[in-house]
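Late entry, written up from scratch paper. The run itself happened at the end of the previous shift, but nothing got recorded in the book at the time, so transcribing now.
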Amino acid sequence: MKIVYFSYLEDIHGISIGSVCKAKEFLNGLRQLGHEIHLFWRSHRPLRKGRESLERRINSPYRKMFRRYYHEPKLLLSNVKHLIEENQILKNIDPDVVITRLSLLRFSAVLLCQKMGIPFVVEIDNPPIHENHTYYGKDYLHLNCFAEYIEQKNLYYADAIFVLSNVLYDYFLQKGVPEDKMFFVPNGADPDTFFPAPKDVRLTKKWGIGDELIIGWIGSGWKWLNNMVEMVAQILSRYRNVKFLFVGGCPDKIRLQQLSRKLKCRDHVILKGYVPHRQIPRYLSVMDIVIAPYPEMSLWYPSPMKVFEYMASGKAVVASAVGQIEEIIQDGYNGYLFHSNDLDDLVHKVVNLIQSPDLLKKIGNNARKTILEKYTWKHHAQTIESILMDVLEKRN
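Output as recorded:
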């Protein structure tokens, strides 16, 4: 099968890295099953360096001022460029099927597939209109009628749709998408990349880690900062043979350093900035317990890839009891769940693991077993392959 994949993600080196990794992983899984894959990032911004980034910073006040008005019209007009380029791509490759990620105000792929008679499959990782209005685009001028119309056309003409979570499945079901058209394909992990491994010697030597138990966190924003610091203080007041490793870059890093000094726990807190995804297994190897705190949301639709990777690595995970996480983790069997806004609950679950090394090991083993049974990219590639084969069979 010859497959073309179009994604319109812009920040593929930053906030969208999880979605980028997901696309690469399941497409690689399809490639390993013998299919010909052509991946195109249609809207990504290149990494900027030196003088270019300086100019961007100088212009940023003006960009921010006008972005409110031009952001969505710019997205809409970008379809003209995409139509011209994608028309040539599809003519040159002549694919059996096109997969595209549902994105705000994007219609070039669905229009060309209808015109050229190519089976069209939609991947949904988020509800674009809801996300745009609620989060990153809440201050923009919204082209609501255009956005709704374009989204409806993408979904109506799709031969099949695969969604990231059951919450998304229900959300789009309520928007009128037929049940027999949608399929559930969550995130996952590569068990050959993320696996139980000895602690990285270079990192333990660098940070002076001996027989201490390491509690870790990996992410790109510390919105749970105050609770993080309080958790550290509570645990260190009872257990001194513990260290904390926080991996990731965010504006609150300096504040966390200051609070660590204030609470006199600086020697027990290791702050590591941004780490490329390919290096994450090294840092996970050092951790014994990994926490995954998430806020409560009215529509908790994500499928946190980090949680799958922690579990594949055989780590004892303590995660917020929200959304899909509650479907993956069975509390006390393959991880621990805590109520998002309940710091005492989090500390209680972490302390249980500190006090019982056997329990920590058992939960880690069960976590990896869960991933191997049903959450590998190979599993998901096989599911998507079945969806695509069914689409082609119906077309023929």
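Residues 2-188+376-395 form a domain with the Rossmann fold fold (CATH 3.40.50.2000).
(Scratch paper discarded after transcription.)
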